[in-house]
């Protein structure tokens, strides 16, 4: 039986269009490709991570909304995907109204934390080869009750940053938000790492942004950068993770390297 507790990582940035969902889809697939077992929780009302992993709205049944509203346990909401070893708690548009529904609940910042705890306890009796090693939470592009819940439930935050002009705008503020959650709701929360996305090595702007982000976050920035790549953009429209759509493309190989780097960082964390 497995005594291993999965590491819970929120993939978050208050800015939209930075490659957050793309990272959730392809990092989870890459982690599975290097031998991990992963659960993705889609916490964005747009449900793009669910669609990108091949789960259409009509197939979703119970969703993360039901978990957050206290109507279902997470174990009853998870679905298998086309990737063996990668499961999903899908999202629904009902998440849009959740903040108003939870307004008077004293436990509202802890709803997901408690649901994840229940899920982890339920899975603790699994054999080692079936146990989850990572739970990745795809957050909405804002700091709302859903993102707050995700970071309260997580061990660490992975922050995608797009290599474009306004990349650093709001990043300092988001870092402060993480520190506030650490101080008030989740003392173990840390930044697992910062991943540079949509990087175009041909442009001076991408290089300059990468340098600025590395100056701001220091060693928290992963060595791996995710290139701007048409195959990355095409894959979700086919309902497939990039590694299934085109394993050999530059984007797929970058996510494999990122997964390896994250696992190495996790091993260093456990050894510390």
Task: Give the CA-based shape.
Answer: globular
Order of helices and strands: EHEHHHEEHHEHEHEHEHHH
Mean pLDDT: 89
Low-confidence stretches: none
Rg measurement, Å: 17 Å
Enumerate how many helices there are, as a single number.
12
**Helicity level, as a percent range?**
40-55%
Structural class computed from helices and strand pairing: alpha/beta
Count of individual beta strands? 8
Major beta-sheet overview: 8 strands, mixed
For the terminal residues, how far apart are their CA atoms?
25 Å
Can you list the strand order of the major beta sheet?
3-4-2-5-1-6-7-8
| Strand-residue proportion | 15-25%
Report on the structure:
With 272 residues, the chain is an alpha/beta fold. It is built from twelve helices and eight strands. The chain has helices at 20-33, 48-52, 64-68, 74-77, 98-101, 111-123, 145-153, 171-184, 204-217, 230-234, 242-245, 250-271, and strands at 7-11, 38-42, 79-80, 86-89, 134-138, 156-162, 190-199, 221-227. An eight-stranded mixed sheet has the order 3-4-2-5-1-6-7-8, sandwiched between helices. Helix 8 links the parallel strand 6 (156-162) and strand 7 (190-199). Helix 1 crosses helix 12 (250-271) and helix 6 (111-123) packs parallel to helix 7 (145-153). The longest helix has 22 residues, at 250-271. It is globular, with a radius of gyration of 17 Å. The two termini are 25 Å apart. The mean pLDDT is 89.
């Amino acid at each position: 039986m497995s005594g291993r507790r999965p590491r819970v990582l929120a993939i978050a940035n208050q800015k939209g269009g930075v490659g957050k969902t793309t990272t959730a889809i392809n990092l989870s697939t890459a982690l599975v490709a290097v031998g991990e077992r992963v659960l993705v929780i889609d916490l964005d009302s747009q449900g793009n991570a669910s669609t990108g992993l091949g789960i259409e709205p009509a197939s979703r049944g119970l969703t993360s909304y039901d978990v957050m509203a206290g109507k279902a346990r997470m174990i009853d909401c998870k679905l298998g995907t086309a990737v063996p070893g990668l499961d999903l708690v899908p999202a629904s548009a009902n998440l849009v109204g959740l903040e108003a529904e939870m307004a008077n609940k004293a436990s509202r910042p802890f709803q997901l934390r408690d649901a994840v705890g229940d899920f982890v306890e339920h899975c603790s009796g699994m054999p080692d080869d079936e146990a989850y090693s990572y739970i990745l939470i795809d957050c909405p592009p804002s700091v709302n009750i859903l993102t707050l819940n995700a970071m309260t439930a997580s061990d660490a935050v992975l922050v995608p940053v797009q290599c474009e002009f306004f990349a650093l705008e709001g990043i300092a503020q988001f870092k402060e938000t993480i520190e506030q959650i650490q101080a008030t709701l989740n003392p173990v929360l840390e930044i697992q790492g910062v991943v540079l996305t949509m990087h175009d090595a041909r442009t001076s702007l991408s290089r300059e942004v990468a340098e600025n982000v590395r100056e701001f976050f220091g060693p928290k920035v992963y060595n791996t950068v995710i290139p701007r790549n048409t195959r990355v953009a095409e894959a979700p429209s086919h309902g497939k993770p990039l590694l299934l759509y085109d394993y050999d493309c530059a984007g797929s190989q970058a996510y494999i390297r990122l997964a390896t780097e994250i696992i190495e960082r996790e091993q260093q964390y456990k050894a510390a």
